[in-house]
Structures are given as C-alpha cells and as structure tokens.
Amino acid sequence: MIADPAQSATLTDEAAIARVLGGDPSAFEAIVRRWQGPLVNLAWRYCRDRTRAEEMAQEAFLRAWRNLAQFRGDSAFSTWLFSLAANVYRTELRRLPATPLSLDDIAEPPDPHLAGAALEETSRDEALRRAVLALPPKYRDAILLFYFHEQDVPAAARTLKIPEGTVKARLFRARELLRSKFSRPASRTAAASSPASLAAHKEAQ
Amino acid sequence: MKTRRPNPNFVPLTDADIARALASEHEAILPSSGFAASVMASIAHDASAPAPIPFPWKRAVPGIIAIAAVLALLIAVLVSMVLSAPAAPVSAAPAPATALDTAALFPFLRSTQSMNVVLWTAGTLGACIVSLVFFRRLLTSR
Question: Which residue in chain A is spatially nearest to B34 when comparing CA positions?
C-alpha cells in the first residue's frame, strides 16, 4: 500500500496507472480513493442496497485493476472506469435482480388527503427510484446514467457506448413508462419552476 | 402491462418530478470507512496469486492440424462419393415415405465398396476422437 495517504491523494490517474503498469500495485489506491464515491453511488442506483453496492463497486475496481493495461487513454479514465463499472453492475443485476417488483406491482398513493403532502412526496419519490429498477434494462441504464452524470446526455452516451440520439430516445421512453405508472396530486404545481425542472428541460432541448 | 383507471385527483408526473426524485443530491451515499482498504486487500490478494497457465498452443497446434486434416479428408471422400454415385432408379410404384430410406437419401451407400470406405473413414475419425479425449483427460488429471 502507499505509505503516505497524502501521496495517494495527489497522484493523478495517469501517474497512478503508469505506476501500476510498471509493477507497483499499491499505486492503485490513489484511483480507488478518488473514484470510490462515484462507483459506490452508481452501484447504489443499480441495486439500492448499500452492502451490495459496495460489493459491486469492489468487483468493478478489481475488474479495472485486471484490465488496466487495456486502457489506451483515448478517452478520460473516468469514462473508461464508469463504462466498465456499468457493465459489471448490469451483469450482476442479470445474475441477481435488485428488486422482485415489476412496474405493475408498484403501488400508487390512493388519495392525496390520506397522508401529509411531504410524506406522500417522499414515499412516491422512493417508489419511483425503485420503479426505475423495474424498467427494461436498456431504459433503466439510460435513465440511471443520465441522472448519475447530472443530466448530461453525452456523458451517459459515452458510458453506455451508444449514440446520444439513442440515449435521448431511451430516456423519453423510460419517462413515458414511469409517467404511465405514477402521478402526483393535481393541486401541486411548484415543481414546474424548480431548478431541477429547468435542468430536465435543458436536456430535452 | 396493466392499465390503471385515471384518478381525477392526480395528474401525470412531469420531467421535473422525475428529475427531482432521481437527481444526484438526493441519491448520494458515502462508501463505508473501510471500503478502500477492503478493495486494496482484494487487489493485493489478486496480485499475489500466480498467473494463470496459458493455453499450450505450441503443443496443441499439431493435434488441431491433424483433426482438421482428417475432417477435410472425410468431407472430400463424402463429396466425391456423392458426386460419383449413380442416380437412383425410378420405381414405377414408389414405396410410401413413412420410414427413413437411407439408400434413397444416399445412393452411393447401395454399393458395398462405398459402404466399406464410409465405415473405415468413420472408424478412423472415431479412433481420433477417442485418442484425443483420452489424452486430454490424461493431461487434465495431472
């Protein structure tokens, strides 16, 4: 392991890769420390289980370590790493799906007056996040990576290795599927002018 | 997918509703404190493991070439026999095609000599496969 944590933190990805390929496995720690947050977060979005997310992220790092020599530097290291991680997570979910729910099984709040508005909104948001996992894999991947990359279509396209137009089409279809299963109380209109709303429409334009 | 009856108290979600639910600031979790150490431990274990034994291509190439040659020979023999076989005589009252008639499908099998050639070729190929399987088991059991 790298003895000095500060040295690990200051080592760039390129320098760490060069040192690992030169026979110093401990240099990989710099990469792990820099990218552990994003990779665990991405895994969390795929499975919504903290323990499993860390296991999946660890497998992704191990795969990155084994295949580091295949990184040619044509794209950013983060693009290569996210693409590899997304592949690992997809394979893992095929082996053991994250949720036994289907879109048809996801409950909709029966009446807006039965629960407080905030509580209802929170539970609906959580149900919606779980519903994303029940989407067909190509729509699920598009919507997960789009929001993981902070609504950046080109970044999602690079991670998925598909054209931007395909990502947009899959996002559209994914949202349609979610809209067909979820609704919100008719009285609430505040979200329309929120920053999140503006960001969502920025991508659509 | 089942369709739900629309509820007049609800309206469909907007893109903004979906974005708010899935946006990163609502989603972020932090890795546990020992995560990086755990990853590095598994990498150290992986690095210390002996490298996998590569497939012995140099030793396998003669066997692969021999199998390919036998297969090519067999195909050539079969093709030449099919091409040189006499056409099946047209019968005035053909038998009903209820059972598989091997001789009708492969006219060259009518000749005893051709049949012998086919049997010898098949026997040789079988011997090749048996010896290949035997040596493969011998190698993997070591």
Answer: A54
